């Protein structure tokens, strides 16, 4: 049917999509891979690619008995997290990217990156990876093609997305799809031996929101390289969502079931490495309550026929932070890993071919750490983490014992509450409810958190992270706030209630005041009680804050004084935030909606 020749492709392309074939041919001509291979997403392909990566030293095959069909990769030590300083939104105008993103003129960026891409896949295979974000049978499935020279990306995309032939078929002969081009930027000369984790010192994670394109160069890691995740499902999708009247958010989605079988779905936006996966998989500690996971990182929300906001998880797997995960903090994550079929990155390797990371049960006497060095618990004078703080497991969502069947429903689930949260050692109470949708938008717009290892930067430094989307909003941040206000106006009283939570408040002695993890179910119960109108709260500057007496403490040995301290709103501390918020809203610029400024004025008035 088509006459397009793709250099390096053996046999017939499995699609008649003329425009797609022309694009693939053009990229292959530019990047000059030895081979072009269409990924079909099959188990046979997984077996072949993982075996090749074991052979190449990229993967270590883990002990088949302990971790069946699972692999460990250790990245280059300089390629361990998202690189926000190298992430660009190349909208047509600088204003379109707003003050929070790095912007470059799209034509200039294309010219510059085209030079980098020239010959960059020499000696490698270019994979054509078709994928779908969200269920394949959605009314308007969101499809993408990632061209990549990384087999690690191909197998990770099989876990994280609906990847392979079915997605290609959905695109059909002329369907729309998001173009993604990814290269690790490490061409091989004739006969040159490859390294286990090829990458380039120079990195670009670039988005062209208007034509819905992604160009990524130089990194093989996580959100930099698995283009369906942060690049498509948040940065590009947020721009689509603004245009189409829905929301693409950095949120977990969980299903909470009360002892009387009341069901509520809750979405929560916390910045990277601030507890989404843990809350999504929560094992409630209060009698009779159950929870199930719909998603752990990204939520796409749109209005249903009944006018409520429905959320879909566009992903198909978990890319979770390993350190801190264990059978007591997150038993459901541990059980998800038991059947195997997982990829681990930058954790430590035990002598019997298993994995280990900080806080996992049973510290071994000897390990190979994420850098490939011998490691012992005492450090032998060489202290350091066995696993990188941003080391990750990548595992299919359907292996989780508490996955809600609705995770695969194209209609999604109706959201009763949206939580915003972050890491704040002070000031922010354990839980409070926004006075209105717009107050909630204000709380989200000024959300703050201590920086984590999930991205480069000074760990611990408090920064504003609006709606936990600072690195992920694909357009002007003021317009993004406006979109939130507009969605609220559309949804009216059917919108979810908005809450602010903080699991990370510390006492004067530096201890966490609240035990967190499964005990957070006690806070979720209060949230449901509020939604159902069963409890009152205290009107404070922050919002309607829970009274300690209304938090179910049955079976919890945390001192009531600690809970009271965790819930307290100290006007003095809140006043200290005011100049920072003034500065932040000024920085966000003239597009910040009046409604947000009004809420800030109301806060100042509450503080006197
Ligand atoms: P990303 O995948 O980067 O978006 O992270 P995330 O938001 O899913 O964070 P995750 O659930 O992986 O948690 C990150 C870190 O926070 C882990 O080290 C957890 O152990 C820790 N953590 C999660 N929940 C709690 C909690 O309730 N209390 C405390 N103290 N720590 C928590
Ligand atoms: C995050 O940083 O928010 C993550 C990990 O979920 S990554 O896929 O690298 O973005
Ligand atoms: Mn995340």
From TrEMBL:
Chain ranges of the Phosphoenolpyruvate carboxykinase C-terminal P-loop domain: 246-606
Pathway(s) per entry: Carbohydrate biosynthesis; gluconeogenesis
Keywords: Cytoplasm, Decarboxylase, Gluconeogenesis, GTP-binding, Kinase, Lyase, Manganese, Metal-binding, Nucleotide-binding, Pyruvate, Transferase
Binding site for GTP: 273-278, 392, 423, 517-520
Residues annotated as binding substrate: 82, 221-223, 272, 390-392
Places the protein is found: Cytoplasm
Positions of transmembrane segments: none
Location of the active site: 274
Record GO cellular component, one term: cytosol
Cofactor: record remark: Binds 1 Mn(2+) ion per subunit.
The protein's required cofactors: Mn(2+)
Secretion signal span: none
Annotated Mn(2+) binding sites: 230, 250, 297
EC number: 4.1.1.32
Name of one Pfam family that matches: PEPCK_N
Single GO molecular function: manganese ion binding
Reaction equation(s) it catalyzes: oxaloacetate + GTP = phosphoenolpyruvate + GDP + CO2
InterPro entries listed in its UniProt record: PEP_carboxykin_GTP_CS (IPR018091), PEP_carboxykinase_C (IPR013035), PEP_carboxykinase_GTP (IPR008209), PEP_carboxykinase_GTP_C (IPR035077), PEP_carboxykinase_GTP_N (IPR035078), PEP_carboxykinase_N (IPR008210)
Role of this protein: Catalyzes the conversion of oxaloacetate (OAA) to phosphoenolpyruvate (PEP), the rate-limiting step in the metabolic pathway that produces glucose from lactate and other precursors derived from the citric acid cycle.
Subunit details: Monomer.
Alphabetized HAMAP family for the sequence: PEPCK_GTP
Family the UniProt entry places it in: Belongs to the phosphoenolpyruvate carboxykinase [GTP] family.
Protein name: Phosphoenolpyruvate carboxykinase [GTP]
Upper classification of the organism: Bacteria, Bacillati, Actinomycetota, Actinomycetes, Mycobacteriales
Gene that produces this protein: pckG
């Amino acid at each position: 049917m088509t006459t397009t020749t793709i250099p390096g492709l053996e046999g017939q392309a499995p699609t008649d999509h003329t425009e797609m074939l022309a694009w693939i041919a053009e990229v292959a001509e530019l990047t000059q891979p030895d081979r072009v291979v269409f990924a079909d997403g099959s188990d046979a392909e997984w077996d072949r690619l993982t075996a090749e990566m074991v052979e190449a030293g990229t993967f270590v095959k883990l002990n088949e008995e302990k971790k069946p069909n699972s692999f460990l990769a250790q990245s280059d030590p300089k390629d361990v997290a998202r690189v926000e300083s190298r992430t660009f939104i190349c909208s047509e105008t600088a204003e379109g990217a707003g003050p929070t993103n790095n912007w470059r003129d799209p034509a200039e960026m294309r010219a510059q990156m085209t030079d980098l891409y020239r010959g960059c896949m020499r000696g490698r295979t270019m994979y054509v990876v078709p994928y779908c974000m969200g269920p394949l049978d959605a009314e308007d499935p969101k499809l993408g093609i990632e061209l990549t020279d990384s087999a690690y990306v191909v197998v990770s995309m099989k876990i994280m997305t609906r990847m392979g032939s079915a997605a290609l078929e959905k695109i059909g002969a002329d369907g729309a799809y998001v173009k993604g081009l990814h290269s690790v930027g490490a061409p091989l000369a004739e006969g040159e031996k490859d390294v286990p984790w090829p990458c380039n010192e120079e990195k670009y994670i670039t988005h062209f929101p208007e034509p819905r394109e992604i160009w990524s160069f130089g990194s093989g890691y996580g959100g930099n390289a698995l283009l369906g995740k942060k690049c498509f499902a948040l940065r590009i999708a947020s721009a689509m969502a603004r245009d189409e009247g829905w929301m693409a958010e950095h949120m977990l989605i969980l299903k909470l079931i009360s002892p009387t079988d009341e069901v509520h779905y809750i979405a929560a936006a916390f910045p990277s490495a601030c507890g989404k996966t843990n809350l999504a998989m929560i094992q409630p500690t209060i009698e009779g309550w159950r929870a199930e996971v719909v998603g752990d990182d990204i939520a796409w929300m749109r209005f249903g026929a009944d006018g409520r906001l429905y959320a879909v998880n566009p992903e198909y797997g978990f890319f979770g932070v390993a350190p801190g995960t264990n059978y007591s903090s997150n038993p459901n994550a541990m059980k998800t890993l038991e059947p195997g079929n997982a990829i681990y990155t930058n954790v430590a390797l035990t002598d019997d071919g298993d994995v280990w990371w900080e806080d996992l049960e049973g510290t071994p006497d000897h390990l190979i750490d994420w850098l490939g060095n011998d490691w012992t618990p005492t450090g032998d004078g060489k202290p350091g983490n066995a696993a990188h703080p941003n080391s990750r497991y990548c595992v299919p969502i359907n292996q989780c014992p508490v996955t809600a069947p609705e995770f695969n429903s194209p209609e999604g689930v109706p959201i009763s509450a949206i939580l915003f949260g972050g890491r704040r050692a002070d000031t922010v109470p354990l839980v409070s409810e926004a006075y209105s949708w717009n107050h909630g938008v204000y709380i989200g717009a000024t959300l703050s958190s201590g920086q984590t290892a999930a991205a480069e930067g000074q760990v611990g430094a408090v920064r504003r992270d609006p709606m936990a989307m600072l690195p992920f909003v694909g357009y002007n941040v003021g317009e993004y706030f406006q979109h939130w206000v507009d969605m609220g106006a559309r949804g009216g009283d059917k919108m979810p209630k908005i809450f602010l939570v903080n699991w990370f408040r510390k006492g004067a002695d530096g201890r966490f005041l609240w035990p967190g993890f499964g005990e957070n179910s006690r806070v979720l119960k209060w949230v449901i009680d509020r939604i159902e109108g069963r409890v009152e709260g205290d009107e404070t500057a922050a919002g309607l804050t829970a009274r300690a007496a209304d938090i179910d403490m049955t079976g919890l040995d945390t001192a009531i004084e600690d809970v009271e301290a965790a819930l307290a709103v100290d006007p003095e501390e809140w006043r200290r935030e005011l100049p920072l918020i003034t500065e932040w809203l000024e920085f966000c610029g003239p597009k910040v909606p009046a409604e947000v400024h009004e809420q800030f004025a109301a806060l100042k008035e509450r503080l006197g």
